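User: I'm designing a mutation panel for inosine/xanthosine triphosphatase and want to avoid disrupting the core. Could you give me a predicted structure to guide residue selection? Please restate the sequence first so the numbering is unambiguous.

Assistant: Good idea. Sequence first, for numbering, then the predicted structure tokens:
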Amino acid sequence: MKVAIGTKNKAKTAAIENVVRTYFEDVQFEQFSVASNVSEQPFSNEETRQGAINRALNTLKVANAELNFGLEGGVHELDGLMYCCNWGAVALPDGTVLSCAGAQFLLPEDIAKELRAGKELGPVMDEFTKEKDTRHHSGAIGVFTAGLINRTEMFEHIVKLLIGQYLCYQDNIL
């Protein structure tokens, strides 16, 4: 089975590879840098979802694999509070796109202010943690859950949902 991944982000690619290997044998993975066609910092569930779908479809265009994944992280506001949100999509060769959302968690107001001022979460988290490439490792979720969940684990949950939907689609349930 050929599986295409619409990112080279280490946390996201690890999530896809870990989960897909659990459910399928003889898998070949290929990674692509594809556009999300949304803002660098998506600011709603709708925009974040669309970014994941766009990545999946753009991956399908360049790879035409059996499974073409797109994962996207963003933020949204609810009742004056800012939350991280995460979406995933898988595009199938027939053009079908399956999507789902994952964990959402509160960001501190100091981080939210930076994002409202136009900054992107990844660099803000690097500055906050005094580390480099936080988005490839623990991510904001790792920092703001006291290390209980890292970014790969968060995206693994989304990929499991996508694989489950794909299996139901194959069985004509979806």
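For picking mutation sites, this is relevant: Strands lie at 2-5, 28-31, 67-78, 81-91, 97-101, 105-106. The chain has a mean pLDDT of 95.
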